[in-house]
Design brief:
64% helix, mainly alpha, transmembrane helix
């Protein structure tokens, strides 16, 4: 691009692409001006960055927030996660220019690269897969082994008590039905015909 220093300034460069005499008000992109064939690489890298970021770290916090927290802590957890996310965005926005002056633009983006690598390693090691798991199992993933044993033991105890209560209820209902049948003179045992009754049925 050849841009004037000032709109009202008549000055032009003495040499180079923007040398004197180039005083048109229309500016155009010169693909062949730079003496390297990698001019387009920053644009390609930026497109790749935006694409992978949109599929990775950008939606990740919002998706995991809906799965990680138990119901009693979901509101507070999502609020804290959202606050942390936007505070980090604010820090990046406030420190970008300062970092570029202190460690150059290259150094600034290498710092961002290092933070991204640390985040990737942390997620790969410490964040479990929650796909297809109910919320009860997701809670167990974040508990210690002792807590898991305690929770599973309590669940088994409740299941045993519920099973025993169901058996007692079934036994009581069966006993009640038997007593009602006996009170009407009906025996629940199978009816076995005698020999005389069998003969009568064969020779009416």
């Amino acid at each position: 691009f050849c841009l004037p220093v000032d709109v009202n300034s008549p000055d032009n460069a003495a040499t180079g692409h923007c040398q004197a005499g180039f005083n048109e008000s229309v500016y155009s992109w010169e693909n062949e001006f730079c003496d390297t064939k990698f001019t387009i690489m920053p644009v390609i890298v930026m497109i790749l960055y935006m694409g992978f970021f949109s599929m990775g770290f950008a939606p990740l916090p919002w998706v995991l927030n809906a799965e990680f927290y138990p119901l009693w802590a979901r509101g507070t957890g999502c609020a804290l996660s959202t606050a942390a996310n936007w505070i980090a965005n604010l820090v990046v926005a406030l420190t970008f220019l300062t970092l570029t002056e202190a460690v150059t633009k290259y150094g600034t983006f290498f710092i961002y690269l290092g933070i991204t690598i640390v985040g990737f390693i942390f997620i790969f090691i410490f964040v479990p897969e929650t796909k297809g798991l109910p919320i009860e199992q997701v809670e167990l993933l974040f508990m210690t082994e002792a807590e898991q044993v305690k929770i599973i033991g309590e669940a088994n105890k409740r299941l045993t008590i519920a099973s025993q209560e169901a058996e007692r209820k079934e036994t009581a209902e069966s006993s009640t039905a038997t007593n009602q049948a006996k009170s009407h003179g009906v025996d629940n045992a199978s009816f076995v015909p005698t020999d005389d009754e069998t003969k009568l049925s064969e020779n009416p």
